[in-house]
C-alpha cells in the first residue's frame, strides 16, 4: 500500500473514496503574505486601492472566492465540494506588504485545505494583475495553511 492516498497499489493516480467518512464541520484557514512595495501601497486610500481596473481588494476577494469554488477544476484529485462559506480578509501589514487570510467552511466528508490555499493564492494573483501597471516587482512571498479543523485531526500552524 502506498503512503500517498492518491496512488493505488500499482502506483497509478486515483481519487480517494470518501464515501465511508462521516460528515463533519470542517474549516481551513490559509495565509498569504505579499510584497507590494511602498510605491503601490502609497496609492491606497482608506485601505482600498483603486486602479484603472477598479477597486483592487474588493475585486481580489471576489476572485479568491471564485478560486475556492473552482479548486476541484484546477487540482485533479480534489473533490468537488458544496462550500458553506468563504471569508477573505486583506490587510496592510506595513509600508510594503499585505496579508491575505482565506477561511473556508464546509460540512462534508473531506477537508477544505486546498480550497483555502487556492483562495489565498488567487486573491494575491488578482492583486498582482490589478497593480502591475504601477510596477511588477511584487512578490507572493509565502502561502501556508494556518489552521484546519474537522476530520481526523486539527492543525494549528500559527
Can you describe this structure in just a few lines?
The chain is built from 4 helices and 7 strands; from the N terminus they run E-H-E-E-H-H-E-E-H-E-E. It has 158 residues and is α+β, with helices and mostly antiparallel strands.
Can you put this structure into words, describing what you see?
By secondary structure, the protein is of the alpha+beta class. The chain is 26% helix and 31% strand. It contains four helices and seven strands; from the N terminus they run E-H-E-E-H-H-E-E-H-E-E. The strands form two sheets. It has a five-stranded antiparallel sheet, with helices on one face. Strand 2 (50-51) and strand 3 form a beta hairpin. Helix 2 (56-69) packs antiparallel against helix 4 (113-131). The longest helix has 19 residues, at 113-131. The radius of gyration is 17 Å and the shape is elongated. The relative contact order is 0.26. The model has no long low-confidence stretch (mean pLDDT 91).
Q: Tell me, what's the shape?
A: elongated
Tell me the radius of gyration.
17 Å
Number of strands: 7
The largest beta-sheet arranges its strands as: 4-5-1-6-7
Helix-and-strand structural type: alpha+beta
- The total of helices stands at 4
Query: Cα distance, first to last residue?
Result: 33 Å
**How much helicity do the residues have?**
25-40%
What composes the largest sheet? 5 strands, antiparallel
Mean pLDDT rating: 91
Any low-confidence stretches, pLDDT <50, length ≥5? none
What is the string of SSEs from the N terminus onward? EHEEHHEEHEE
The proportion of strand residues reads 25-35%
Amino acid at each position: 500500500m502506498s503512503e500517498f492516498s492518491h496512488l493505488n497499489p500499482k502506483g497509478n493516480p486515483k481519487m480517494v473514496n470518501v464515501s465511508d467518512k462521516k460528515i463533519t464541520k470542517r474549516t481551513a484557514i490559509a495565509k498569504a503574505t505579499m510584497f507590494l512595495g511602498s510605491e503601490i501601497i502609497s496609492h491606497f486610500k482608506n485601505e482600498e486601492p483603486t486602479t484603472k481596473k477598479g477597486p483592487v481588494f474588493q475585486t481580489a476577494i471576489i476572485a479568491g472566492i471564485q478560486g475556492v469554488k473552482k479548486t476541484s477544476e484546477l487540482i485533479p484529485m480534489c473533490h468537488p465540494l458544496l462550500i458553506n462559506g468563504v471569508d477573505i480578509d486583506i490587510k496592510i501589514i506595513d509600508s510594503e506588504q499585505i496579508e491575505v487570510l482565506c477561511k473556508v467552511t464546509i460540512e462534508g466528508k473531506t477537508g477544505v485545505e486546498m480550497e483555502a490555499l487556492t483562495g489565498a493564492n488567487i486573491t494575491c494573483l488578482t492583486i498582482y494583475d490589478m497593480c502591475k501597471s504601477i510596477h511588477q516587482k511584487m512578490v507572493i512571498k509565502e502561502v501556508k495553511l494556518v489552521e484546519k479543523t474537522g476530520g481526523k485531526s486539527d492543525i494549528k500552524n500559527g
